[in-house]
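Fold it.
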Amino acid sequence: MADTEVSMDTQNELNDLRMSDGAVPLYEHVKSFIKDVVNPMSEEFHRLGEGKTDIWSYAPGQLEALEKAKDEAKKQGLWNFFLPDAETGEGLKNLDYAYIAAELGKNPLASESMNCSAPDTGNMEVLERVGTPEQKERWLKPLLEGKIRSAFAMTEPALPSSDAKNVSMSAVLEGDEWVINGEKFYISGAGDPRCKIMITMVKTSPDAAPNKQQSQILVPLPHPGVTILGPMHVFGDPDAPHGHMHIRFENVRVPKENMLLGEGRGFEISQL
């Protein structure tokens, strides 16, 4: 009987989906910040963007308004919640972050105001976990500071690319450079003029085991041979200037040091 009671208590604890007491003050702080800072900034941001002719750019004053909110978020300690148990983040458990993320989702500019926007969140987590010191200095640091944006390029035309084993875009090592050829589409964030780096899933070892054929390589933007063909529309919306872009890679050359973790470890990284 005692064993059964312990087992039931343990099960009840595992099923407890309440926010931890320690995260409640931060949660309330986030809600207040959205109400007092993000919502008014958002109104100004959209007002400034009315009537702009180039949907793939920002109107004068828009980014300045956003940066002002970001600076205030940093000042108030509301920054980089998404990195669990990491020195670079808030150290929140995923369950606690889920409650905060639900609040961030209520205003399209709230996540970016606190540097918790996808796809930057996942890219920063990858770089934080597997990046070299040089990769972290060049790309992770400005991402953590909210100075640049990023993209993750995996999905390919005519392939069920949600399974990373199906990725076919080739990368061949020539001397000290990887040469990349192929196409990607629905690459979220690549339309933003502030997007400066893409984590790109490629096939480097076609004769290896199915889960050892892929690698992830850092490709800067803009870069010779990388052509953004245009946006993919979602329910008729191009989602400018963020965008979900169709991109062609033609003999794109990047240093071999741009490889993440090691050749053939791309599928492994995607499981992090």
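The mean pLDDT is 93.
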